[in-house]
Recover the amino acids of this structure.
């Protein structure tokens, strides 16, 4: 996962946007390959914020 310190390093100039992009891309690949997201690790499931109603389209 991307930690607050990683984003903070980018903001303060210790990490470039390109380096942060590589971290984000690797995280995307990891989750797409089956690594559990932080939400899944904490079993939030249906308690997650969803800005739209989950239902079948009518």
């Amino acid at each position: 996962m991307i930690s607050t310190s990683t984003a903070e390093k980018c903001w303060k100039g210790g990490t470039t946007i390109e380096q942060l992009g590589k971290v984000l891309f690797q995280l995307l690949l990891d989750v797409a390959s089956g690594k559990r997201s932080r939400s899944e690790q904490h079993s939030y499931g249906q308690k997650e914020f969803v800005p739209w109603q989950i239902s079948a389209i009518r």
The CA atoms of residues 39 and 45 lie 7 Å apart. The chain has a mean pLDDT of 78. Residues 17-32 form the longest helix (16 residues).
